[in-house]
Fold each of these.
Amino acid sequence: MATRFDPFQEMDRVLGQMLAADRASAGMPMDLYRDGDHYVLHVDLPGADPGTIDVAVEDRTLTIRANRSGRTEHDVQWLAKERPAGTYARQLTVGRGLALDRISATYADGVLTLTIPVAEEAKPRRIEVQHGSAATSIEAAPAGTAG
């Protein structure tokens, strides 16, 4: 069976993957997972000034901002200057069922960690089912009559 191969399309696909990876790594790459009754979000912020890290929640939008200052050496000849500086921001829309008023945040070794608890009303709960003679029955009154 013959397959059609377009080298330009393949090159475009590979280049697109590389650029997408660069955009993710240049911003704020993150990991998110659920651990029991809370979610954990790890955001890489290497070199961020700890005092500039801001985490805010408004309605269902979680916003993370941080600033990394650029090096300001005077009278030097830069040979390479690839580390980005400036303000970084990332917004996530979060679903219902989270206790957004109880988010905790820590910053260590260039990683911001947010712990987001699941709201009590969203946690799974067991409902007891009665059976046999212990079950109570309720009969509906015929229409037009009062109980």
Note: The first helix runs from residue 7 to 26.
Amino acid sequence: MSGQGLPLRVATLLTGLLECLGFAGVLFGWVSLVFVFKTEHYFEELCKQDAGPMGNATLQNDCKAQDERFLLIFTLASFMNNFMTFPTGYIFDRFKTTVARLIAIFLYTSATLTIAFISADSALLLFLAMPMLTVGGILFLITNLQIGNLFGKHRSTIITLYNGAFDSSSAVFLIIKLLYEKGISLRASFIFLSVCSVWHVGRTFLLMPRGHIPYPLPPYYSYGLSSWSCLRGKKKETVESKKLNLQSKEFLSPKEADTPGPVQQQEARSFWSYVFSQRFAWHLVWLSVIQLWHYLFIGTLNNLLTKLAVGDRDLVSSYTNAFAITQFFGVLCAPWNGLLMDRLKQKYQKEARRTGSPDSAAALRSAVPSLALTSLLCLGFALCASIPILPLQYVTFILQVISRSFLYGGNASFLTLAFPSEHFGKLFGLVMALSAIVSLLQFPIFMLIGGPLQNDPLYVNVTLVLFSLVTLVHPLLVYRECRRA
């Protein structure tokens, strides 16, 4: 890394981290926002006429339809968060960084302005605003993940750090809730988020590439404001053109370019051959099952806490704050996953060079502990969430945030290790889109618990815990594949 470009790259890294931390994944602070929406009487007309005041134990029973409406909004928004990753990944691959980020800014600003100016009478607009908010956020994340390419062997650590920041951004809605309780209106908070779009635009043109950041990084690579100024001189235009051509070629190269044999084999394979591979199929199962647990937990947490707290509004607020605070620490948990993968990759590749094994297989093997650890964390989180003891939910919150930060960081890192870079955007988008379809099950599961199961989630929890055990098959198969290689 040249000394001249180091300050620019560090600025890009830190501002990208701030962007993901403050904007990308705010949807997952939904529990805090629901608390505010209920205080503002959103969808309160769905409650029965004889419902008591806010906070009564009777309210939960009488306002079941209100809880279903909020869960339906979250289900739709979380579905769009994943499903739209596929078309947005294609947009990023096809139209490059600047176009993708301008689309993200438009969606995000439109969503925050919509939420700012709606009221209880127009609350149905949340069905439009929340999906727009989450699609804009995921585009921010996708365009920032490539920043890891600027830092060579620390690439996986930075990718997981950014995914951890995405998770931690859910604390933004906690801040909005706390400000609301101090007298700052919901409208003022979301107008502030809208105004921040000026910062996003400035970062797009000053600190981000117009195309993609290649890996490995070519010599004298420039981006941001410096790459725009290069277009002014004729000689510099030629140099920039050559760089962009090289960038395009390098971006289409596989993740691990140390050995020419595997590279040529990977380039010869089509996108659909990877989609229908066993490796991709089991990764989809692994992601879908663990993600369903997290979405179901977040979407129904307000209802769960109200039930366990016997309708005590202050107690529900206290546990809601505790959950949101733990979410903030996702940015601290996620890098450990990437650091583990980076260290193991270096170790296994040194062993591979001594034994003559492919470097690509050694790099893939470094993902096995991460996949297995994520599955075990999810299993522990699922078991704690299934036990109806209110104080135990503090442990659930901790395991949930660690598991979730490992999940998304590990997902992105695994895809960069297991598949060629030319297909990363499409494969990342496809696996998220397909897992989104599975996440739609959270709403019928909620209806099943509230209907035929008469608010007893035991059978559902046991079934989902068994599915969590199935996710351990994925790291075992990857390990066996690496051993054969």
Note: The chain has one domain: 6-215+253-257+269-484.
Amino acid sequence: MAKKTMTVVKNLDIERYMGRWYEIASFPSFFQPRNGVNTRATYTLNNDGTVHVLNETWSDGKRDYIEGTAYKADPASDEAKLKVKFYVPPFLPIFPVVGDYWVLYIDDDYQYAVIGQPSRKYLWILSRKTQIDEEVYNQLVEKAKEEGYDVSKLHKTPQADPPPESETGPKDTKGIWWIKSLFGK
């Protein structure tokens, strides 16, 4: 059975979308630390209209992070289909890794978002707060299910309240855990 075309948010207000989002749940993948907690993304608008991306996660008390740039895949389109480009530090010469970032759902107040990509192998449920109501969570899961995702693979991400400060703890800048997802493997 052919899966229906994914519905992507139209006319995303990129300025309202900026700021910090906490990962409430995602599809686990081999590259991300199994014990990764407090995973979050912080988006900042650049002067040229692109977005600076900072992804962070903590495992064994250590902060992993990677930075990149997001931009519209097709500037003429009103759909929220973004490309995210990370420059991979551990490899020389430095080369960019590009992945798809499709905003499948966002609520009117820009408090919750569902992010996917065309292969449906990756899914993220994001929130402005570290915890969300079970009812809201279930509604977001239902949205993903409607878009053809196998939501049985969703894994909730533990989030501390209050969240950790970025500057604390030893750093691990390899960022490998995030990169591999972008290949969509």
Note: DSSP finds three helices and ten strands in the chain.
